[in-house]
């Protein structure tokens, strides 16, 4: 698969029988960090990069490095959560497009810093949509709704990402089913069947490529493939 974001996951030869359940608990600190501090920081820098690329046609190297780290952290967290690796992911926030290794999964990104497609970037303004979704959910709890035109504007500005998001959802369902069978296999045999491992790992790859595209690291649309 030729894409600016490459993801390699090493299948363990053997895995302790407790890991499919135990790692769901052990990963919680990373899950919290990802969905609090990193999500907020990435949301802010994503807005900055969106305006910067539209204005200059260039992506600042510092933001590119941080966004690559964010995508890598997501992939490491989810691969450990899905017990695709038995190596505990480090709390590493060093901005780098090249994977430093040591986590059982390698995520290397070649960001496109210049000659950007401004039209494509214009319709990838997804971060506020995520915020509005959260606000909308809170609104349902307290009895207020956001105006319909707000959602329409956000859907238009995030339109380019919709096909990829739909495919990612489908890939997640397929991978989840494979993970359930993989869980049983590891619990009873201590081994990940190669075919199930490949399918289960598919969503991690899809998610990483989609987020690399969403965070404006490349203008090349992510492939509709789980490989």
Description:
With 227 residues, this protein is mainly α. The chain has one domain. The protein has 8 helices and 2 strands, in the order E-H-H-H-E-H-H-H-H-H. The protein has a two-stranded antiparallel sheet. The chain is globular, with a radius of gyration of 18 Å.
Helix-strand blueprint:
Elements: E1 5-9, H1 19-26, H2 28-56, H3 61-81, E2 105-109, H4 118-122, H5 127-142, H6 148-157, H7 162-189, H8 194-214
Physical arrangement of strands within the biggest beta sheet? 1-2
Report the sheet-strand fraction: under 5%
Number of domains: 1
CA gyration radius, whole angstroms: 18 Å
* General form: globular
Uncertain stretches of 5 or more adjacent residues: none
Number of helices: 8
How many beta-strand segments?
2
Largest sheet: 2 strands, antiparallel
- Identify the quaternary structure here: single chain
Q: What descriptors fit this protein?
A:
2 strands, 61% helix, mainly alpha, 227 residues
Q: What's this model, at a glance?
A:
By secondary structure, this protein is mainly α. It is 61% helix and 4% strand.
């Amino acid at each position: 698969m030729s894409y600016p974001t490459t993801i390699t996951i090493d299948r363990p030869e053997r895995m302790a029988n407790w890991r499919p359940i135990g790692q769901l608990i052990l990963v919680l600190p990373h899950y919290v960090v990802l969905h609090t501090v990193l999500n907020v920081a990435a949301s802010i820098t994503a807005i900055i990069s969106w305006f910067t690329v539209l204005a200059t046609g260039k992506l600042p190297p510092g933001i590119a490095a941080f966004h690559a780290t964010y995508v890598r952290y997501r992939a490491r967290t989810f691969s450990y959560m899905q017990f695709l690796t038995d190596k505990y992911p480090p709390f590493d926030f060093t901005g780098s497009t090249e994977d430093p290794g040591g986590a059982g999964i390698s995520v290397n990104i070649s960001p496109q810093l210049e000659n950007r497609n401004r039209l494509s970037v214009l319709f990838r303004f997804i971060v506020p949509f995520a915020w509005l979704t959260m606000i909308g959910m809170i609104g349902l709890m307290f009895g207020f709704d956001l105006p319909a035109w707000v959602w329409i504007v956000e859907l238009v500005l995030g339109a380019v990402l919709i096909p990829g998001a739909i495919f990612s959802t489908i890939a997640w369902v397929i991978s989840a089913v494979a993970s359930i069978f993989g869980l049983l296999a590891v619990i009873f045999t201590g081994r990940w069947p190669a075919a199930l491992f490949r399918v289960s790992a598919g969503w991690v790859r899809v998610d990483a490529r989609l987020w690399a595209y969403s965070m404006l690291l490349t203008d090349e649309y992510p492939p509709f493939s789980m490989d």
